[in-house]
Amino acid sequence: THSLGQAARQILTQNDKGSYTIPTKGLYPYQWNWDSAIAALGFAEFDINRAWVELETLFSGQWADGMVPHILFHQPDSGYFPGPDVWGCGGPIPSSGIIQPPIAASMARRIWEKDTVAGASRMVVLYPKMLAWHRWIMQWRLDRGAVCTTHPWETGRDNAPDWDNTMARMNASDVGEYTRRDTAHVNSDDRPTKFDYDRYIKLVQLGRKLNWDQAALREQSPFRVADPTMTFTTLGAARDLLAMGTELGFDTIGLAEDIQTLEAGAATLWNTDLGAFDSRDVLSGEWAECLSNASYLCWLGGIESDQMMDRLRNTLETVPYPVPSNDPDSDTFDARRYWRGPTWAVVNMLIGLGLEQQGHHAEAAELARKTGALISEHGFAEYFDPLSGSPAGGKSFTWTAAVWLAWAG
Ligand code: DGY
């Protein structure tokens, strides 16, 4: 455990660009939004100042309207596509035009709780920015109180089967020529298909054409899905903002109402036939019919569910390396392909932090133990085959190292 801790620190240090951390060399050479929030939690284990700097750099890319982009392109890198020229965004730092699960406030709360004296001065600057991002999400992304994703990349769960029906209805025949870079870095069987990639790029082209205007996108985009990742992370963040703001005497106006709205929204994601939290296509009204690892983020959002708890206990008992990103009994299950089956240590940690917060200590400890065993047997990979445990995707991955330091090690 000691040497693994050292190895984890070394990964964070190697991927550290000074004021922000890249997820992994080659495949992801910039600052990613939720990766960075996880990196901050990892840094907090040995360098709390560096943890704050990570979050401060992330919010230095915040747009004037409150939006915090999913990628900040701090310096050019020809190894990644689509780069800043494809996104065509304004903003203080070249960036993408979409968001990612807003876990920054929840990670900030945990970092602040480690040292509330030092944290208080950092929070004076950071808190209003986090609140402004929360308000942007509440303004632009709700459907019946649930939070919508407008691009598969926003959830982080790029090629999850949750979006299959929505993506199948999209026409991307005019996407044009482009060269993927991801498959130059890692095995293409571990990555999304060309069918999916064409649609990812098509949605970027649409956003650019509409100047990333959220009102226009709401009218015109074929992709708008209310999803457990966005809804539960936004709900958890709102609760954490309210708790911190109350303690520190900051502006918390509207947060209590927002929490009620989001709780009602979370209820609209319960698919009774599936018996799980599911994604719902806002335009077609259809369920995705997907039990994913994001379905288990309910506890992070402060939502209790006996049925999800039964499922979790069953998954912990029956899947060799839980929690799989897709139900192993589903036709769409693919043990190695990114978000269609593999286990992600980072999602395990978010599930585990939620379980702990809700007082489900035995399940939280069991999940942490299994995640720790997976990492110690198979390394700090981006993700893992849930049946064999074998590592997949990028290596020496920042968030897997941070998960070890902050939770699983
Ligand atoms: C990618 O490029 O594959 C990323 O997941 C986008 O965020």
Taking all Cα atoms into account, the compactness measure Rg is: 19 Å
Low-confidence stretches: none
Query: Order of helices and strands, N to C?
Result: HEHHEHHHEEHHHHEHHEEEHHHEEH
Q: How many strands in all? A: 10
| Distance between the amino and carboxyl termini | 7 Å
Mean pLDDT: 97
Q: For this structure, what is the CATH class?
A: Mainly Alpha
Overall tally of structural domains? 1
Q: Summarize the amount of helix as a percent range.
A: 40-55%
User: How would you classify the helix and strand content by structural class?
Assistant: mainly alpha
Count of helical segments?
16
Bound molecules: (2R)-2,3-dihydroxypropanoic acid
In short:
With 409 residues, this protein is mainly α.
Description of the molecule:
This protein is mainly alpha-helical. It has a single domain (2-408), classed as Glycosyltransferase. It has 16 helices and ten strands. A four-stranded antiparallel sheet has the order 3-4-5-8. Strands 1-2 form a two-stranded antiparallel ribbon. Strands 6-7 form a two-stranded antiparallel ribbon. A hairpin with a 4-residue loop joins strand 6 and strand 7. Helix 14 runs parallel beside helix 16. The longest helix is centred in the N-terminal third of the chain and has 25 residues, at 116-140. The termini are close together. Bound molecules: (2R)-2,3-dihydroxypropanoic acid. (2R)-2,3-dihydroxypropanoic acid (DGY) is lined by residues 70, 153, 158, 182.
